[in-house]
Write a structure and sequence with these properties.
The chain has 474 residues and is of the alpha/beta class. The protein has two domains: 2-245 and 448-469, Aldehyde Dehydrogenase, Chain A, domain 1 (3-Layer(aba) Sandwich); 250-438, Aldehyde Dehydrogenase, Chain A, domain 2 (3-Layer(aba) Sandwich). It has helices spanning 41-58, 63-79, 81-92, 96-118, 148-162, 175-187, 202-211, 224-235, 259-271, 291-302, 323-338, 373-376, 392-400, 415-423, 456-461; strands at 2-4, 7-9, 12-14, 21-26, 31-37, 123-126, 129-135, 138-142, 165-169, 195-197, 217-221, 240-244, 249-253, 281-287, 342-345, 363-366, 383-389, 407-411, 429-432, 450-451, 464-469. A hairpin with a 4-residue loop joins strand 4 (21-26) and strand 5. Helix 2 (63-79) packs across helix 6. The chain is globular, with a radius of gyration of 23 Å. The chain binds nicotinamide-adenine-dinucleotide. It comes from Pseudomonas batumici.
């Protein structure tokens, strides 16, 4: 049993003012493995005050000083990789086949930000004016549970690279992972107040951050409904807001695709991160003339996908993060059946031979129409929908017929043709025949998948404001 009873304010581990104790679970067993004492509104205000006090000096640091800090943070995170890997398996249920990548990613995002900072010019000319890109102030960084360490480090890296100080509110469900991150970043020996970490509830700590007048910028990753409520409270003080929200990403399989490659890739896109991924490809669009072939290929490929013990290196799908999330996914599977979608594989309940933990059967529906609930709403579990289309025009129309627009996938034997389709998709990222990640490229959503971009130069500029100097330009 881990007991976490400290938060991190002004460079020190302190006892929170908040008293509430919150249970932490191992989702593979459903058992309590720890408890965290949650921060409250007062703690959030203290953290904001510390970040505010640190901002004037930090915002005037040089690029070289901030680069050195980011590199120290990277080394400190990399030194904790094994410990974070274990926590990702125990507390989140990430399968070992993925947890290692996630643990490494939490460190590498710090170096990625350093690379961007190294080549970024904070001043430029615009006509007779000199334009200075100036840090916004104190940033509130609010993150979800499905990649706790990666989101904390990624947002913090961009904020600090820009010269902003930060108050971080991670998900209360990831407190063990957060503690490892906090200890690592503390070891990087940054001046006090640059970053403050207050684990607490969204309605208390999160709401205080999103409404506080001393917060200039919010960077939020989470669900679309919470994103909208943050945008509303941030409007009162006109905070700058970056929102990374949900998705219902299409995987467009063109009629020339080699299914022996396309189907395993489509299933991987759909089931990644136990299906708890905002970028999961959950709508598989297939030409109607090849539907039978696609279904046969799915049935064959699914045999190689194992849902179960996250410690087992052969496992590709671990448990849902919580019982609530398990119930939510079960409800959607029931809705799919009730709405008349055809269950190709999977279904309600736990996988065969599994009698505990929040495991879901990898599920694929066929005969889905794009107006069914399972095709429109984000399920956030390993539940995929096969939707057939008549021709390429209809495929593009269906792909874009969604309130979301985070990511899209196009699979084809002809890259140029896939590219023409990609150009017409409404999504912040389109991946052609690949699942690769590019940290230098902007990431974020069209439509209700969000506002703004993270990563690369766009991600850095999300923490900066242009100021034009006229008359006295150097
Ligand atoms: P969530 O929206 O419930 O919570 C996200 C964070 O917001 C948590 O820290 C939570 O405590 C906090 N929060 C909740 N209510 C709040 C409020 N009123 N004010 C301020 N903060 C509040 O999301 P979740 O269930 O933790 O995560 C899953 C969601 O995140 C999914 O919808 C998924 O698509 C989305 N997500 C998006 C991305 C992306 O980059 N676009 C990445 C990962 C996850």
């Amino acid at each position: 049993m881990q007991r976490i009873d400290q938060i991190y304010i002004n460079g020190a581990f302190v006892s929170p003012h908040g008293q509430e104790l919150f249970d932490l679970f191992n989702p593979a067993t459903g058992q309590v493995i720890g408890q965290v004492r949650l921060a409250d509104e007062q703690d959030a205000r203290d953290a904001i005050a510390a970040a505010k006090a640190a901002f004037p000096a930090f915002s005037r640091t040089t690029k070289a000083e901030r680069l050195a800090m980011l590199r120290r943070m990277h080394a400190a995170m990399a030194a904790r990789e094994d410990q974070l890997n274990d926590a990702l398996i125990e507390e989140y249920g990430a399968p070992a086949s993925r947890s290692r990548w996630m643990a490494q990613h939490a460190a590498s995002v710090l170096l990625d930000a350093a690379k961007v900072l190294e080549h970024y010019d904070f001043t430029r000319r615009a006509g007779t004016a000199e334009v200075i890109m100036q840090p916004l102030g104190v940033a509130g960084l609010i993150t979800p549970w499905n990649n706790d360490a990666g989101f904390i480090c990624g947002k913090l890296a961009a904020a600090l690279a820009a010269g902003c100080t930060a108050v971080i509110k991670p998900s209360e469900m990831s407190a063990i992972q957060t503690r490892i991150v906090t200890e690592a970043l503390h070891a990087a020996d940054l001046p006090p107040g640059l970053f403050n970490i207050v684990t607490g509830r969204g309605e208390t700590v999160g709401a205080t951050i999103s409404s506080h007048p001393d917060i200039a910028k919010i960077s939020f990753t989470g669900s679309t409904p919470v994103g909208k409520s943050i945008l509303r409270s941030a409007a009162e003080t006109l905070k700058r807001v970056t929102l990374e929200l949900g998705g219902k990403s299409p995987v467009v399989i063109l009629d020339d695709a080699d299914l022996s490659q396309a189907i395993p890739l489509a299933l991987q896109a759909g089931f990644m991160n136990n299906g708890q991924a905002c970028i999961a490809g959950t709508r598989i669009l297939v030409p109607e003339g090849r539907l039978a072939e696609v279904e046969a290929a799915v049935l064959q490929a699914i045999d190689t996908i194992t849902a179960g013990d996250p410690h087992d290196p052969r496992t590709s799908i671990g448990p849902m993060v919580s019982e609530k999330q398990w119930q939510r996914v079960q409800r959607y599977i029931r809705i799919g059946i009730d709405d008349g979608a055809r269950l190709l594989v999977g279904g309600e309940g736990r996988p065969q031979g599994v009698d505990k933990g929040w495991f879901v059967r990898p599920t694929v529906f066929s005969g889905v129409s794009n107006d069914m609930t399972i095709a429109r709403e984000e399920i956030f579990g390993p539940v995929l929908s096969i939707i057939s289309y008549r021709d390429q025009e209809e495929a593009i129309r269906i792909a874009n017929d969604t309130p979301y627009g985070l990511q899209a996938y196009v699979l084809s034997a002809d890259t140029e043709r896939a590219r023409q389709v990609a150009d017409r998709l409404e999504a912040g990222r389109v991946l052609i025949n690949t699942l690769a990640h590019e940290p230098a490229a902007p990431f974020g959503g069209f439509k209700q998948s969000g506002i703004g971009r993270e990563y690369g130069t766009f991600g850095l500029e999300a923490f900066l404001e242009p100021k034009s100097i006229l008359g006295g330009a150097r």
